[in-house]
Amino acid sequence: MSLAFLGWSEGRVLVGRGPFETRAVPPETGVAFYRNDFGLDSSEPWLIPSESALLSKEEAMEWAGIEGPVDVSWDNLEASPFAEVFQEITTSIRWGIFEKTVPVVVEKGRVDAGGAAALVSRALSASEPLVPYGIVADGRGFAGMSPEHLLILDGRTLKTMALAGTARAEEREVLAVDEKEIREHEFVAQALVSKLGDLGNLSRGARVVMDLGPIVHFHTPIEVELNQDEPVDALIRRLHPTPALGPLPRTGETMSRLIAWREKLGAPDEFGAPFGAVVDGAFRAIVAIRGVWWNGKDVFLPAGCGVIEPSRLVNEWRELRLKREAVKARFGI
Ligand SMILES: C=C(O[C@H]1C=CC=C(C(=O)O)[C@@H]1O)C(=O)O
Description:
Residues 81-323 form the Chorismate-utilising enzyme C-terminal domain. The chain contains 8 helices and 19 strands.
């Protein structure tokens, strides 16, 4: 069994069944999913499904047909590997190599009862602003509910967003005036504006608080009316990774340092990468966060946190736990 899915517009979900035909470029008509790793290293990221449909949430859950219990027992997550990476990051920031970067920690577990594929129908239960996404093949896959769109492209209208700066729902008022969180967010918003400003007429919305139940984030919508048609692969490369998941400045050197830290802490290759789809020329991609990865009975729950000069280890560790706990609660695991 292989399948892929992505929350589409107007509450619908794009679903596709394998086998998938892989391609280097998107088809001009019809449906293809886009799957890549964080470094965008795949030579054939476009996956054309054997059959596809745009369904309501309920229809999509029925279509997936893999409900059932999933009980996961989680290992204790050691803080010391993250503390070492955090130390290396703060030193690199002091040396002026980075202004911001985003380490990723991974909580590991095992499925005790049921099958991990049932996580697909849990992801499909997502409600806006969360977007369900995932792909499953040969007993491995990932499924998530992402709050972050990397790119929505319809004709010459491009939409993206800065999503960074985090607090517990109870701390919503203090988030709004927290200088460190505002600075972290503004790094992302301003980087997006400068990456896209030369492509057309850009409008940046106001910074608002996005409510996700137990967790809240700063959110700034950004829209560009493009001067000309732009190939979607080029736009993805221009945007990804934004400083919400990637380094600032983004250079070959800062990317390889981040990828080395991600590998050291065991981040899945697709975590934080764009996951998307094209339907008759219209493209949407989310950032693959707030998800669960699995391989057979092994389950991985990654989370990242933006680190800037004023960031402190204990606070970041707490934020990482908050993000993981929010995912566990939504998936009921
Ligand atoms: C990297 C993650 O979240 C991103 C999205 C929202 C807020 C973030 C933050 O405040 O660091 C991150 O940029 C994650 O959930 O693993």
